Give the backbone structure.
Amino acid sequence: IKEELILNTELVKITTEDCDEKFNKAVELLQNEEVVGMPTETVYGLAGNAFSPLAVSRIFEAKGRPTDNPLIVHISEFSEIYNLVKTVPETAKKLAEKFWPGPLTIILPKADKVPFCTTGNLDTVAVRCPSHEIARKLIKLSGLPLAAPSANLSGKPSPTKAKHVFEDLNGRIPFIIDGGDCKEGVESTVITLAGEKPRLLRPGNVTLKELTEVLGEVEVDDAVLNPLKNNETAASPGMKYKHYSPDAEVFVVEGDMKAVKKKTDELLKENGDKVCGVLTMSENAYDSAIILSGGTTNKQYAKLLFSNLREFDRLGVEVVFAEFESRDGYGLAIRNRLYKAAAHKVIKV
Ligand code: TXA
Ligand code: MG
């Protein structure tokens, strides 16, 4: 057994009030090329020095992540982007001014000193300035840009609570900062400015409409809502992997909530021999299933989504019917995550 697999993982509650003293251990680990679980406003990240191939290899190893899937590099303020990219175009400045700190990741041609292991061998780098106070302080105090993918085992739903990180990575990483539940619940919007036109690679809480308002035209990558065709290369390597999957088989039931409920009722009858779960956006319960609430707004649904998927697994659910009715611009991000969790088994009513 490798030494790294028998570590004892420390889980420490840290708030914005006491973080200065309590950060010592985390900062020391980061400066010694180790990795640390940290909260952000979207999901928990697994952070390491973005300039250190050793730290980056530890991130990939702990997650079991394919090494061609690039990491997002986190900074604490806009000016730090100049350490990471070749040049900063006007479009990036405008986006940063409007949405940073916050859940937007911008891809640009990388500076030479960013190692290729961080970018999955691409000559571009993804940069994000999170709004979470604890994440930003950690970056500042460590004095490092922090590469941080979501802190889940590769293929599992992203962690929105420190306990999810512990479930997945206990024994595989030395330290987790428990900063409470993540406010957003789905990962950041990812846009690339490295091509001819701005292109949305992953939708998030910064919506397509908001991006278009700043940039004019924004292309939407095909992989946002469609499965990749066999011979297609992914613009964002992360999109080619099965993603966000609980152990249960997931079906999305999407449309007007009244019709959705009728359909879910039928589906539950057809699947009477299995342990069924329903993720619902309405009040009504079904008696032959385990019900978890997705809230009544897109915002609530997004915040609870990954945690609900993990909970269905914990409860031993075999088939999940995820009801969804898009109610605003955040819907695209939710559909993107749901469709992947369901391996594109979507029932539209
Ligand atoms: O909200 C978030 O973005 C969270 C928190 C921790 O900040 N992080 C996160 O990282 O979701 P990760 O690694 O789970 O997802 C990053 C996505 C992947 O799909 C990856 O392929 C894509 O961004 N990506 C990263 N660098 C890229 C690049 N240079 N070109 C294209 N896609 C890139
Ligand atoms: Mg991820």
About this structure: The pocket of magnesium ion (ligand 2) is lined by residues 149-150, 158 (CB under 6 Å). Residues 298-314 form the longest helix (17 residues). The first strand starts at residue 10 and ends at 13.
